[in-house]
């Protein structure tokens, strides 16, 4: 009977991260990229992949904002919360530099005193929108306008393509090389399509030229036959 054998199971350490561990995680991310967390955790005694991933996304990622929330950010958070409610990970996709954990903590603490103020501001916008229509939103920037339209028209809010790239500023050499390969393949595909298109145009032109040449030959032959027939008729008339 086959037995399950576990060799030296890894003991998970629930303790604060040290500076040396943080530096080690950063070095390993430069090697493996911010994806292979299980592989990264193998180099850190007492850590598992989930711990390394959370440490990166919540603390070590250079794109994370650690500055206090300003009023504009809080207003944007209020608007996104009206759409997604307590789906913090969805909100984090739209607010650049803030993690879902920091968004959740700020909403449950710093936003409590300001929700009435933002609610009054939103209701004023809603009343003005009902009176004047969409032109009301022209005074707001693109991000605010998009989310206000989604709320007022009750339509889903989609993520812009460039927001993903802004949320993750760290691009590893492997990722860059992959992007280059994709661009080259797309370029080659585009070139192949262009060549096929040119071949089709040449075939069409040759076909049209052949049709014109055939038409000219047919017309010439027809004229020659007609001229010969007329000559025979005239010769017959003269002989008679």
Automatic annotation (TrEMBL):
Stretches assigned to the Myb-like domain: 13-60, 61-111
Molecular function via GO: DNA-binding transcription factor activity, RNA polymerase II-specific; RNA polymerase II cis-regulatory region sequence-specific DNA binding
Classification via Pfam families: Myb_DNA-bind_6
Keywords: DNA-binding, Repeat
Domain HTH myb-type stretches: 12-64, 65-115
GO BP: regulation of DNA-templated transcription
Single GO cellular component term: nucleus
Protein's UniProt keywords contain DNA-binding: yes
InterPro entries with a match to the protein in the record: Homeodomain-like_sf, Myb_dom, MYB_TF, SANT/Myb
SMART domains: SANT
PANTHER family cross-referenced by the UniProt entry: MYB PROTEIN-RELATED (PTHR45614), MYB-LIKE DNA-BINDING PROTEIN (PTHR45614:SF274)
Protein name: Uncharacterized protein
């Amino acid at each position: 009977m086959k037995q399950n054998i576990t060799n030296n199971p890894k003991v998970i350490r629930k303790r604060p991260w040290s500076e040396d561990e943080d530096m080690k995680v950063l070095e390993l991310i430069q090697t493996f990229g911010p994806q292979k967390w299980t592989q990264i955790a193998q180099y850190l005694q007492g850590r598992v992949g989930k711990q390394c991933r959370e440490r990166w996304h919540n603390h070590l990622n250079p794109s994370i904002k650690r500055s206090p929330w300003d009023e504009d950010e809080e207003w944007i958070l209020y608007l996104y919360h009206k759409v997604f409610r307590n789906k913090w990970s969805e909100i984090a996709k739209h607010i650049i530099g803030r993690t879902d954990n920091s968004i959740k903590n700020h909403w449950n603490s710093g936003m409590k005193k300001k929700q009435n103020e933002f609610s009054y501001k939103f209701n004023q916008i809603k009343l003005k929108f009902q009176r004047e229509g969409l032109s009301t939103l022209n005074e707001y920037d693109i991000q605010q306008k998009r989310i206000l339209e989604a709320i007022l028209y009750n339509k889903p809010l989609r993520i812009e393509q460039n927001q993903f790239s802004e949320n993750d500023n760290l691009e590893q050499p492997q990722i860059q090389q992959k992007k280059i390969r994709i661009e080259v393949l797309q370029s080659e595909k585009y070139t192949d399509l262009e060549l096929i298109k040119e071949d089709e145009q040449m075939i069409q032109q040759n076909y049209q030229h052949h049709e014109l040449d055939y038409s000219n030959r047919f017309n010439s032959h027809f004229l020659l036959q007609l001229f010969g027939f007329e000559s025979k008729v005239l010769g017959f008339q003269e002989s008679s």
